[in-house]
Amino acid sequence: MAEAGGELMAMTSPTTPTISNISNISAEVDPRQLLDLVRQLDGIKRGVEKVLSRSINKIAVMARTKLLAMIVKEVRVPKKYLRAESIKLRRASYSRLWASLEVRSKRIPLSQFSAQQVNEGVSYSIRKGVRKTLPHSFFATMPSGHVGVFRRYGPRVRVQSNLEWKFKGKGYSRKNTAKDVGKSRQRIQEAFGPSVPQVLFDASDYATGTFNALIQEKLTGEIDVQLGLMLAKNSPELEVAAG
């Protein structure tokens, strides 16, 4: 059970007002709508930037919410974990008129899938209604505070005094204590479930392009809403300028 590393992310040019996220999902401001914004907001300081950044950020948050809903519909993993560890939202600003949803491709720890210790090992449920057991596995808390599901593997090695050893591929270590010396132990390896991209590619709305079409439609509509709010807020300013 290996952990996949890296990130899966697609991004268009930072100079184009956009929302982008994983794979081929993206939304861009229609050039004609952009020209109309420039025309109607002429005279309002940073009016175009305010309307676009607010619109992009609102739809980016909505896109993240819908992605989370797709994921938890497919697998049993807490939304709190996904927000913190798997999906990172980068918001637009006045000087950067684009937002992105960065979805990490690392596998989700098995401990996040309703895992429970049982006599045979650790019971877990990745798909709703399906519960399986990983034999001879156990929970362990690492020095970093991370709680995971682990299994022992490989040949048994006799513990030596004051020997510092590392968990394979995890980047943390500990020194053996006096009670460890002379004992024979195996290494441990953490168990993982699927990655977020794997789950999303199985989601029907994502796979068929429905999600992409929805985000594009919502972005266009939100720009119209924010434009109306901006014009209403600044109407006295426009009248003075006109006079």
Rg from alpha-carbon coordinates: 25 Å
The share of residues in extended strands comes to 25-35%
Q: Largest sheet, described in full? A: 5 strands, mixed
Number of helices: 7
Structural class from helices and strands? alpha+beta
The overall pLDDT average reads: 78
Span of the ends, CA to CA: 72 Å
Number of strands: 15
Helix percent reads: 25-40%
Q: Note poorly predicted spans.
A: 1-16, 163-173, 238-243
Describe the structure.
37% of the residues lie in helices and 28% in strands. It has 243 residues and is α+β, with helices and mostly antiparallel strands. It folds into two domains: 7-106 and 197-242, no CATH class; 110-193, no CATH class. The strands form five sheets. Strands 1, 2, 3, 4 and 5 form a five-stranded mixed beta sheet that branches. The chain has a three-stranded antiparallel beta sheet with strand order 7-8-9, with no helix packed on it. Helix 2 crosses helix 4. The longest helix has 28 residues, at 47-74. The radius of gyration is 25 Å and the shape is elongated. The termini are far apart.
Short description:
The protein is an alpha+beta fold and 243 residues long. Helices cover 37% and strands 28% of the residues. The chain is elongated, with a radius of gyration of 25 Å.
Give the topology.
Layout: E1 7-8, E2 18-20, E3 26-28, H1 31-40, H2 47-74, H3 79-86, E4 87-90, E5 98-104, E6 107-109, E7 116-118, E8 121-124, E9 132-135, E10 137-141, E11 147-158, E12 164-166, E13 173-175, E14 184-190, E15 192-195, H4 196-202, H5 204-207, H6 210-233, H7 235-242
Parallel strand pairs: 2-5
Antiparallel strand pairs: 1-5, 2-3, 4-5, 6-15, 7-8, 8-9, 10-11, 11-14, 12-13
